[in-house]
Amino acid sequence: MILGRTERGTPPVEPVTLKILVAGGFGVGKTTLVGAVSEIKPLRTEEVLTEAGRPVDDTTGVEGKHTTTVAMDFGRITLREDLVLYLFGTPGQDRFWFLWDELASGALGAVVLADTRRLEDCFAAVDYFERRSIPFVIGVNCFDTAAHYPAETVRQALDLDPDVPVVLCDARRRESVKDVLVAVVRHAMAYTVEHRHSVTT
């Protein structure tokens, strides 16, 4: 470097932004997952559970839950300097599913969060993404009070295609959630390449 002259800095990298959905049944940990990993204060649209909602909000297994997402959770995480993920947590109850199509628009992929105590609650989300050809991974939220099963056992119980990743995770831990999100991005990219190849051949 010549005295009095500074080296030119490299131009700032314009990051690629990707949209990821976080779906699953009521009380499975979607809001917790988004909050654990988001680098900004998450936007939450939660309301307190009421007596009027008891007939439609099954709290079996999550009796300590007192709020529910009524629109979406939103968070952001930078995986690399050039890669930013926007996370959209979907509401879990059937009566809010009219929001899903809008939230799913433009999504690269999705995480379907599962609770082994109520595995059937994620069937609808799996069906939704399969029907719309949106690549997804299963994130098995390993609750302290739940029985833990190998990923392959969960795959068989959900009757998943062999290429759908199943990742065991703790939705409260940032590093664990990051592993799930990396799996989504990798799977979605591989899915896109394979889909393009099948279209051109």
UniProtKB/TrEMBL annotation:
InterPro entries in UniProt: Gliding_Motility_GTPase (IPR052705), Gpn (IPR004130), P-loop_NTPase (IPR027417)
Entry annotated with the keyword Transport: no
Signal peptide: none
Domain of life: Bacteria
Keywords: GTP-binding, Hydrolase, Nucleotide-binding
UniProt entry tagged with the keyword Nucleotide-binding: yes
SUPFAM superfamilies cross-referenced by the UniProt entry: P-loop containing nucleoside triphosphate hydrolases
Family of this protein: Belongs to the GPN-loop GTPase family.
Protein name as it appears in the record: ATP/GTP-binding protein
Species whose genome carries this gene: Streptomyces heilongjiangensis
